[in-house]
Amino acid sequence: MVASLAEAAGLVRLANELGFSYVYAGQHYLSHPYQMLQPLPVMARLAAEAPGMDQVFTAVLPLYNPVELAEQVATLDVITNGHAVLAVALGYREEEHQSFGVRREDRVSRMVESLEVMKLLWSGENVSYEGKHFQLSDVHIGLNPIQRPSPPVWIAASADRAVERAGRLGYPWLINHADYPTVERQVAMYRASLKAAGHSDVTTLPALREFFVADTREEAFRICQPFLAGKYDTYAQWGQDKALDGEQSFTNNFEELARDRFIVGSVDDVVADLKRYEALGVTHMGLRVRWAGMGVEPTATCMRLVAERVMPHFK
Hints:
Layout: H1 2-18, E1 22-25, H2 39-47, E2 54-60, H3 66-79, E3 84-89, H4 94-99, H5 107-122, E4 127-130, E5 135-139, E6 153-156, H6 160-169, E7 173-174, H7 180-196, E8 206-213, H8 217-238, H9 254-258, E9 263-265, H10 267-280, E10 284-288, H11 296-310
Parallel strand pairs: 1-2, 2-3, 3-6, 6-7, 8-9, 8-10
Antiparallel strand pairs: 4-5
Helix pairs in contact: 1-11, 2-3, 3-5, 6-7
């Protein structure tokens, strides 16, 4: 993992040189067979390689104490000089919740209370709070974040009711694993939920996609398939596809799995796909361009191709 972290630092330096906007890290605990570094310390380490780039990381929020996470995010915001972005997730893996002593039926209420507590703490005022899970009595955060009134918070969601909840709470929705037809339907649902709750000021719509570009579609699939297929085999074992609405399965053959879910192909292919998301109103597109076991050079080549021939098509 020491070598892997060094490789990641080098790729982040390259991303900064090429003009990418932000670095992203996800989160899982108990992730065997994958080795996953936890995102908060990794973001702090990578910030030194990417001055001016946003540092976006996911936290499985029901597993946290909101006081601790509020202080940790504020710390990262200071380290990055105001470039920390928190993406919160409900989580779907039973072993994670059980191991942290969190009942599955408490996930949503813990997440909602945590969001409320963190927002209050980041205000810089004394905070008293009486909730089902968390109680605070006239306390004050130890460190104010640089960004005011708070660092940005996104909500990662895949199921319909979770997407609607993100809109109802008034947070940007982080699009992730669903296929394009599902995303298209859910964007309309999310916007309706925002409007019904009176959140007309929320205009950020971020997305994450598995992504790879090469000179031809065939070459792009040949390079990424061995690594990306392995990742989704593990997701299927974890039950990630069962957290999605509709008849979606991660055990399909790779071509079927990739269709409308991954952005893989030639420059023309990926530009056309990205334009679809732009038309939906996506404002931040996170490109996952490397997976477990994949070398640095194919990733760097892909990143350079994005900078040279894909980025010019977009703002």
